[in-house]
Amino acid sequence: MAKFVVAGKANCPYYAKAELLADYLQTNLPNFRVHKITQHPDKWEQWLHDICETNGWEHRQCPIIWRELLDRGGKGQLLGGLNDFLEYAQQYYGITSMMLTEEMLDIAEENLQAHLEIVKEDEEIKSLIKPIQIWITSASVPICYHLIPLLANGEVFGMTTEISIHLLDTEQFKEILCGIVMEAEDMAFPLLRSISEHTKTDQAFIDADIIIVLDDVLLNLEVQSLENYIREVSDICQVYAPLIEKNAKSEVKVISSGKTFANLKATMLRTYGPSIRPENIIAISTSWESAAKAMLARKLNMNTAGVKDVIVWGNITGSNYIDLSHAKLYGYDCAIRGPPNFQRPLLNMIYDSEWMDSELLSAQSTLRSRVSRCTGMLPAHAVATALRYWYHGSPSEEIISLGVLSEGQFCIPEGIVFSMPVRFRNGNWEVMTELEINETTQKVLGRLSHELVQVRVS
Length: 458
Description:
This is Putative malate dehydrogenase 1B. Keywords: NAD, Oxidoreductase, Tricarboxylic acid cycle. Pfam families: Ldh_1_C. Residues 380-452 form the Lactate/malate dehydrogenase C-terminal domain. By secondary structure, this protein is of the alpha/beta class. The protein folds into 3 domains: 2-126, Glutaredoxin; 132-281, NAD(P)-binding Rossmann-like Domain (Rossmann fold, 3-Layer(aba) Sandwich), CATH 3.40.50.720; 286-457, L-2-Hydroxyisocaproate Dehydrogenase, Chain A, domain 2 (Alpha-Beta Complex). The chain is 45% helix and 20% strand. The strands form 4 sheets. It has a 9-stranded mixed sheet with strand order 7-6-5-8-9-10-16-17-18. A 4-stranded mixed sheet has the order 2-1-3-4. Strands 11-14-15 form a 3-stranded antiparallel sheet. Helix 8 (262-272) links the parallel strand 9 and strand 10. It is elongated. It starts with a strand and ends with a helix. 36% of the residues are buried. The mean pLDDT is 88.
C-alpha cells in the first residue's frame, strides 16, 4: 500500500493542485492513501523548517510531499514538490492533472477560508473546556515531583477534568523546573493540558484556581533564632498574599504544606491577603494522620487502610497531638467479625497498657521524626488526598484532620490555623463540632493553642 503525505500553505495554488490530484488517486486506486496537512501561511515557513530538520530533508517550496514507509517503518521518503508529484503520478499510474491556474487560485482561496474556520472552531471548543489552573510554589522540591503525576492522572479532579500546572521558583532552580516540565510532557497525561515553569514572581498566580504553597525554611536554631525564621516565613507570605489577591480567581483554594510552619504560612496568607476567603485557606495534616495510622497498624499487625478516624490536633509541623479516642478499626482479625462496614473502637483492641501509657508518647516523637524526614511520596499523597476530598467529598462519616482557621470551635482561640477534625462535602469542609472530647484532650488543646498564639505574636 502506498501512503503519501501532502503538506502546504492553506492559500497556495500549487498545494491545491497537489491535494486534488492526491484525492483523485485515492478515490480511483485501491492501494493509494493520502494524508493532508494544511498550515496557516504565517506558520508555514517554521513548520517546513522543523519537519525538514527532523527528517534530514532539503526542501524550501510549497507543497512538500513524502511517502510514508508503512511496510518498513522509519522516517518517510521525500518525494519533493508539485512537479515531482505530477511526474510520479504520470510514470506509475498514467494519471496527471490538467487543472488551470484560475481554478488553482479559486481552490486555494477556498482552502484558506476552510482552514481559518477549522482553526476558529477548534479554539471555540478548547475555550469551552477550561482546565483547572494549578500553581505550585517552591516547585523544585521533591514533593512537587511526586505530586504532578497524582494531579494529572485524573483521580483527584475526575477523569474528564483537564488541568494546567504552573511551577514557580527562583531563577537558580530554572533548570530543575525545565527538567520537570519536560518529563511531565513526555509522560503524555491525557488530562494535562499544559505545564510551564515560572521564575518571575510578579507574574505569579495568574487565573489560579488552586495554589499549593510548598515554601520551607531550613530550621537550625543554632544558627539563628526562631523569631528570625518566623520573620522569613512572614516575608514570603507578604509577597504571595497580595499577588494572590491581584492575579488569582476570587474562589481560589490555597493549600499550605511542607516540612516547616504549615499553620503559620496559612495564617500569614490570610493576614496579608484579607480578601482571600478564609475557608479556602487550609494546611495539610494528612501526612501526620497517615503516618499515625501506619504506626498503629504495625502495632496491631493489620492493614493500615483499616485504621480510621485518627485525629491530629494543633500545629501540624510543630507541637501536635495524636488523638485516638475516636479511632476505629475495620477488618481487624479478632474474635468478633462482621461485614466490611463492621468496626471496633481502636482503644478497646490495644490491650498493652504500658504501650498506651508510655511508649505511645515516645512513638509520637518518633512519628514526628519520620514525618519531618518525608520529602516526597507521603506529603504529595497528603496534598492530593485533601484536594480529592475538597472536590468530591470525603468518605461518609469518616474523620479527616485538616489545618483550618479557628472560629472558636473546641474552645480554640479564633484567628489561628489549627489542625482539627473536619469532613468534606459539596465542595466545602466543615468542622465536626459534634465530636465529644475528654478533659485530657481539652487541656492539651489549650496548651497547643497557646503555643500557636505565641508563634503568631512573634
